[in-house]
């Protein structure tokens, strides 16, 4: 009830302030993910406020903040922290966030660390290893080390053209415990070992940048194993009889955030959008359609069945206990400070 | 009849009350010990991050000049603080597990609060600023101190104090390794050195309390995680035993290096307070070249478990430098343990052995198995607790094969090292400080007590030039059978007995009939020495003399024997009684 009044007031406010009805530009990730965002967030927001939303393709990185940036970016936590440190993002007043649907104040409703000075985390996603079940009719890959095992699991792999997950998995395949990965990657010896392990895949790797690519390559049989975002693989399976199987061992968890670039043209409308998109109801609606976990506790308890497919979504979320026993938490603070250097090493290695 | 029944009931009540008190103390000591142990470990991690010692914090520092500066300055500055802290301790150095062992073995020492606080702080600073020392020694000492202080708050007797110390030690080990059985075993194997049900119950309770705190209240993984790894061939168990003997020699070199460095540091013409700072400066300088020697070395320990992480030459280099760095830091007065560096050195040595064997024999088990065996076989002789070391592996891995491999490697290791150095690093330390535990606990107890409290002044003394008659009448008056001869300035000149004088002419000098086998003791004579003396002694009392041979009193043989029997029965009661 109160929420309704709020939104109505918000809508009228937006219209009163901007008689020309601005168009909000959002940089986001395309494919199945953006389709869900369009359905659950963008169109309803436009319907309520009259503010149209146009999207621009984004595959990560900080270049998006240069020149005329969009009004909002759906950015990964690592890049958010780095960009915030660099002063490229607007600081956010978290008191603008709505309380949870159960009345929990926003600050307590969000998971610890989800609210940062420049950002509001909205989903938990995982980079996972997936494989083409047609390629392995006998023994199937079951652990991270199998990604590097060309003897038992031959065939081309698709990996992200970034250090993310690749270095972690390489080291993990030596038997390094999850919580020591970043300590060892901080030493020249650890990095060397990781690259040596990746060398094993020499000539068998195809590099992807956009999140939808590994899905397509797996489905078309161009690769037999691939890293990728768990929600994309999930959606692929949802659409039909896809051969893709997810291997949850060593899933790399991270959060996606909403940020407003310093140079945004419509910062106020962007704030309105963040408030709209991070309510308990919207977060739960997203999680019911694509297998990413919400960052609000009140939303987690509302995850239920997929509206069309009708099955329980909970077992498909990265944070579900079945899936997360060997999950790696991406050390976002580490990456925020080291990403450029690690990327340089990674690129130098790729060119070898 | 009814009265004696009432006494029995009251006795039973007392026993139950006592049991409840000791168990309650066990829980309390366990919880407090576990929380402090966790805070200690977290504190080290935090300091390592803030002070740019940990590889992760160094990697995250974008400006490399800061790293160089921190490497050079932090250990030196930490050393300075450590030196200053140690000025507040009577011995001028940190206390550690040796003090805990001595306190329990001699049933004498309680662990005082002041050195406990100062030593814990100085080890926190040492470890936080990157000194190459261990963290478990300080934790054992911290746990023991918590126990002793807790027992004192409850005004318990010395036996309960000892049990409480063991409780604290067990809780600390249980917490940081997530290994409650190892905690219990460690407290028995190293600290108590006997097995009494009355001690087992509270120690087990404390160990479990530590485990619960580590898992439920402050959930944290064990300090070192090892994945289960299979042993491929049965003949490899033979290799593990060989590796064990070789590792024991490494342990001997390691311990002797620490002692040698201590002697070297003692001869350095430097004020004691500055020595750790100098050590830190040298360490920092060397770490610019080989950063692996800084700090606890968790990353190096992990790499030792990975095939191909080190070349063979590198293995030897890092092993030797880590050994020297640890000996250097400990010898120069940094505060910390010997266990964690031994883990690193041992696993590096095991890895080296495994690589060499792998080249010679072809396919062997994973390097992990050899690294584990080396790790256990170097640390077990150092801490003098072979069973604990094996059980830690069992509790960390839950893997039986790996545990048996570890057992094979320690089978001979402790024996070999004990022949060359002693039962443990700590026993050797104590021996150097005058407490020899190699003769068992009864000897330790007797050595730690002097005859001072048994000295009486009820003796007969006569002038050295007294006649036989004078001496006889003096003895008769006092109803004594012995008299001490003293000169004008009260110096002891010998002893005469009534039997010797009884048939002699009255006016001859008594001196002529002095007892031949004449023994004296002084106030510092230990009960142990006194008992040794009694073997050759005939008579009823032994004179006690002070400086210049002045006669100060006498000790009756009967009192000596009574004291001996009291101590032995006290010890037996502590070690065997169930209540």
Automatic annotation (TrEMBL), chain A:
Protein's recorded name: Spermidine/putrescine ABC transporter substrate-binding protein
Signal peptide start and end residues: 1-16
Organism domain of life: Bacteria
InterPro entries recorded: SBP
Alphabetical keyword list: Signal
Keyword presence, Signal: yes
One Pfam family linked to the record: SBP_bac_8
UniProtKB/TrEMBL annotation, chain B:
Subcellular location: Membrane
Keyword Heme attributed: no
GO cellular component, one term: chloride channel complex
Record keywords: CBS domain, Chloride, Chloride channel, Ion channel, Ion transport, Membrane, Transmembrane, Transmembrane helix, Transport
KW Chloroplast (keyword) present: no
Organism: Saccharospirillum salsuginis
Domain of life: Bacteria
InterPro entries per UniProt: CBS_dom, CBS_dom_sf, Cl-channel_core, ClC, ClC-type_chloride_channel
Transmembrane segments: 25-46, 66-85, 163-187, 199-218, 238-261, 273-290, 310-330, 342-361, 367-394, 406-426
Protein's recorded name: CBS domain-containing protein
Residues covered by the CBS domain: 454-513
Gene3D superfamilies: CBS-domain, Clc chloride channel
One Pfam family, short name: CBS
Principal location class: membrane
Membrane topology listed for this record: Multi-pass membrane protein
MF terms (GO), sorted A to Z: chloride channel activity
């Amino acid at each position: 009830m109160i929420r309704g009044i709020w939104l109505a007031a918000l809508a009228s406010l937006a219209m009163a302030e901007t008689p020309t009805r601005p168009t909000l530009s959002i940089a986001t990730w395309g494919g199945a993910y953006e389709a869900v965002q369009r359905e659950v967030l963008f169109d309803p927001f436009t319907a309520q406020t009259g503010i149209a939303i146009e999207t621009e393709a984004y595959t990560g990185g900080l270049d998006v903040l240069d020149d005329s940036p969009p009004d909002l970016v759906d950015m990964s936590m690592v890049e958010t922290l780095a960009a915030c440190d660099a002063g490229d993002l607007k600081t956010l007043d978290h008191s603008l966030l709505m309380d949870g649907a159960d009345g929990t104040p926003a600050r307590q409703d969000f998971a610890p660390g989800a609210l940062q000075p420049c950002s509001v985390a909205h989903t938990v996603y995982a980079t996972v290893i997936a494989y083409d079940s047609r390629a392995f009719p006998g023994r199937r890959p079951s652990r991270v080390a199998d990604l590097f095992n060309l003897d038992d699991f031959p065939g081309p792999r698709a990996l992200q053209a970034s250090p993310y997950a690749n270095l972690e998995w390489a080291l993990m395949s030596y038997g390094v415990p999850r919580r020591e990965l970043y300590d060892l990657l901080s030493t020249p010896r650890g990095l060397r070992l990781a690259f040596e392990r990746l060398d094993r895949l020499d000539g068998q790797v195809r590099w992807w940048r956009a999140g939808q690519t590994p899905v397509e390559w797996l489905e078309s049989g161009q690769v037999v194993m691939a890293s990728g975002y768990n929600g994309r693989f999930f959606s692929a399976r949802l659409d039909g009889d896809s051969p893709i199987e997810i291997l949850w061992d060593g899933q790399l968890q991270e959060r996606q955030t909403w940020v407003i670039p310093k140079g945004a043209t419509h910062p106020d409308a962007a704030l309105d959008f963040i408030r709209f998109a991070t309510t308990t109801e919207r977060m739960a609606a997203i999680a019911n359609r694509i297998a990413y976990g919400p960052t609000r506790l009140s939303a987690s308890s509302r995850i239920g069945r997929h509206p069309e497919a009708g099955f329980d979504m909970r077992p498909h979320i990265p944070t579900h206990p079945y899936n997360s026993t060997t999950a790696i938490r991406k050390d976002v603070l580490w990456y925020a400070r080291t990403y450029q250097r690690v990327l340089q090493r990674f690129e130098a290695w790729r060119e070898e | 009849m009814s009265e004696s029944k009432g006494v029995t009931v009251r006795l039973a009540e007392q026993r139950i009350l006592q049991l409840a008190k000791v168990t309650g103390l066990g829980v309390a000591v366990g919880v407090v010990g576990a929380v402090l142990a966790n805070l200690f470990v977290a504190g080290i991690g935090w300091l390592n991050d803030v002070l740019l010692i940990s590889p992760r914090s160094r990697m995250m520092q974008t400006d490399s000049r800061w790293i160089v500066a921190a490497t050079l300055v932090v250990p030196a500055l930490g050393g300075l603080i450590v030196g200053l802290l140690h000025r507040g301790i009577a011995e001028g150095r940190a206390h550690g597990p040796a003090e805990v062992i001595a306190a329990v073995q001699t049933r004498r020492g309680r662990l005082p609060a002041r050195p406990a606080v100062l030593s814990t702080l100085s080890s926190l600073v040492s470890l936080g600023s990157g000194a190459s020392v261990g963290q478990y020694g300080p934790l054992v000492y911290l746990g023991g101190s918590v126990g002793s202080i807790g027992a004192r708050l409850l005004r318990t007797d010395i036996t309960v104090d000892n049990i409480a110390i063991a409780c604290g030690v067990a809780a600390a080990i249980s917490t940081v390794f997530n290994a409650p059985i190892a905690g219990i075993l460690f407290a028995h194997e190293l600290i108590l050195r006997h097995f009494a049900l009355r001690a087992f119950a509270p120690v087990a309770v404390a160990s479990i309390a530590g485990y619960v705190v580590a898992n439920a209240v402050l959930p944290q993984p064990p300090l070192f995680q090892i994945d289960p790894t299979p042993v491929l061939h049965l003949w490899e168990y033979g290799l593990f035993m060989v590796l064990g003997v070789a590792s024991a020699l490494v342990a001997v070199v390691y311990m002797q290096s620490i002692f040698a460095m201590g002697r070297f540091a003692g001869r350095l013409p430097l004020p004691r307070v500055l020595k750790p700072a100098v050590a830190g400066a040298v360490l920092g300088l060397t770490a610019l070249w080989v950063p692996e020697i800084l700090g606890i070395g968790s990353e190096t320990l992990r790499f030792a478990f990975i095939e191909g992480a080190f070349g063979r030459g590198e293995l030897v280099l890092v092993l030797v430098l880590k050994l020297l760095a640890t000996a250097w830091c400990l010898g120069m007065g940094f505060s910390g343990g010997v266990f964690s560096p031994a883990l690193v050195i041992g696993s590096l040595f095991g890895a080296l052995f495994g690589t060499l064997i792998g080249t010679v024999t072809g396919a062997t088990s994973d390097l992990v198995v050899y690294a584990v065996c080396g790790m256990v076989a170097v640390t077990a002789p150092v801490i003098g607790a072979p069973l604990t070391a094996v059980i830690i592996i069992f509790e960390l891995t839950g893997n039986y094969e790996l545990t048996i491999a570890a057992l094979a490697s320690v089978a001979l290791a402790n024996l070999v090292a004990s022949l060359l150095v002693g039962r443990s690093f700590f026993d050797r330390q104590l021996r150097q400080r005058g407490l020899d535990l190699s003769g068992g606990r009864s000897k330790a107890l007797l050595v730690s007590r002097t005859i001072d409290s048994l000295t009486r002044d009820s003796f007969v003394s006569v002038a050295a030039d007294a006649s036989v008659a004078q001496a006889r009448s003096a003895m008769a008056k006092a109803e004594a059978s012995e008299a001490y001869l003293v000169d004008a300035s009260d110096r002891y000149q010998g002893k005469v007995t009534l039997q010797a004088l009884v048939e002699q002419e009255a006016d001859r000098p008594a001196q002529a009939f002095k007892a031949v086998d004449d023994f004296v003791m002084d106030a510092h004579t230990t009960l142990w020495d006194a008992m040794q003396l009694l073997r050759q002694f005939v008579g009823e009392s032994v004179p006690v003399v002070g400086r210049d041979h002045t006669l100060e009193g006498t000790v009756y043989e009967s009192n000596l024997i009574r004291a001996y029997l009291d101590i032995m029965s006290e010890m037996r009661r502590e070690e065997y009684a169930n209540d």
